Amino acid sequence: MSRAKGNLAEDRACRFLDENGFMIVERNFYTRFGEIDIIAAKDEVLHFVEVKSGLDYESAIQNITPKKILRLTRTGDIYMKKNSLHVNFMYDAILVTPQDVEFVENITI
Asked: Residue 68 maps to which CATH number?
């Protein structure tokens, strides 16, 4: 996927989160282990959000691999340590298709 398509998907994901009561804390947090697309907060929980897009739900969700989840969790750990945070958190995904935006909570379970 091109960076431009990725940015459009992330923008749609941010709008979705904003419309559903989340506060965007940071976008595109990078470490040597990987990137977190969106970090958001709601109800005293920090959400590390991976954004994936595709032509349909199936093609978007198939891009969330065990390797991607490992990179996401390592990067989230670094974010928590770097910011000295001791809060509840979870790893989520937002799947963006031409027709819909779908929020999938707790993808590490």
From this structure: 3.40.1350.10
- In tens, the pLDDT along 68-99 reads 999 999 999 999 999 999 999 999 999 999 99
| Residue 17 CB coordination number (10 Å) | 22
Q: Exposure of 37 by Cβ count < 10 A (0-12 exposed, 13-18 middle, 19+ buried)?
A: buried
How many other β-carbons are positioned within 10 Å of the β-carbon of residue 72?
24
Tokens of 30: 């990078």
pTM, 2 dp: 0.93
- Give all strands (DSSP E) within the chain, no chain letters: 23-30, 35-42, 45-53, 88-96, 101-104
